[in-house]
Amino acid sequence: MKITVKLFATLEKYLPADAGNHQVTLEVPPAASVQTCLDHFQIPEKLRHLVLVNGVYIPPDQRMTTELREGDIVAVWPEIAGG
């Protein structure tokens, strides 16, 4: 099944070189978890600060058990400090 993965800020470097506009379409097995999807990009756990699926926050303790569906959009941001 196909999903869209969007990586923002410093996480964009984990996308393939041919990814456009900080996102890529990814083929994943049916019922793949959010964790499995993120592991595909080899993003260190400590950098996976804010993870949303279709705009809904997925806490770290639910990423292994939250299953993705065809057409889902996974968006990930690192921790960002500002002033």
Describe this protein with a few key phrases.
83 residues; Ubiquitin-like (UB roll); 5-stranded mixed beta sheet; 1 helix
- The CATH class assignment is Alpha Beta
Beta-strand segment tally: 5
Helical segment count: 1
Measured on Cα atoms, how large is the radius of gyration? 12 Å
Tell me the strand percentage band. Answer: 25-35%
From N to C, what is the helix and strand string? Answer: EEHEEE
Mean pLDDT: 92
Please identify the structural class as seen in this structure.
Answer: mainly beta
- Apparent shape: globular
End-to-end Cα distance = 41 Å
Low-confidence stretches: none
Largest sheet: 5 strands, mixed
Structural commentary:
This protein has 83 residues and is mostly beta strands. It has one domain (2-77): Roll (Ubiquitin-like (UB roll)). It is built from one helix and five strands, in the order E-E-H-E-E-E. It has one helix at 34-40; strands at 2-7, 23-27, 50-53, 56-57, 73-77. It has a five-stranded mixed beta sheet, with no helix packed on it. Strand 3 (50-53) and strand 4 form a beta hairpin. The longest helix is centred in the middle third of the chain and has 7 residues, at 34-40. The mean pLDDT is 92.
